[in-house]
Amino acid sequence: MYADRITKSMKIVIEETNRRRQIQEEYNKQNNINPETIYKTIEEIMSTTSIADIGIEKNAKREAQLLYKEALKPLSAANFVPNDQLENYINELYTQMKEAAKNLDFEQAATLRDEIAILKKKLEIINAK
């Protein structure tokens, strides 16, 4: 840690670290354990990190699947609702959103909420003209 002064939080952390270190040293002494540095070959290190890389690859695959699912979603109704019917359609969606939430269908409610946000932005743009 680098600082001009030791804060209360830093002091607590340092004291806790020292406390744990003391417990570990006593345990090692009681059990005749002499800590020593672990030396690994490059191959051992690479195999360890390759296991971590598999986790990264899984996350990348999961993200790609989510993006693909998002791309398959139907286009927003904002592209198809006539401008003069937009406000009524927003009110209709709002009612559907409330009903979905009431029925504990929160995913549908969230989808409707997002759709409403898109339509409201479109309505703002239309009204600004």
Task: Report a brief summary of the structure.
This is UvrABC system protein B. This protein is 73% helix and 0% strand.
Architecture overview:
With 129 residues, the chain is mainly α. Helix 3 (86-102) runs antiparallel to helix 4 (106-128). The protein folds into two domains: 13-68, no CATH class; 75-128. 73% of the residues lie in helices and 0% in strands.
What is the residue-mean pLDDT, rounded to a whole number?
83
Q: What pattern of helices and strands is seen along the backbone?
A: HHHH
End-to-end distance: 57 Å
The major beta sheet can be summarized as: none
- Please tell me the total number of domains: 2
Percentage of residues in strands: under 5%
Helix content: over 70%
The chain-level structural class is mainly alpha
Walk me through the topology.
Elements: H1 8-30, H2 42-72, H3 86-102, H4 106-128
Task: Pick out its properties.
mainly alpha; 129 residues
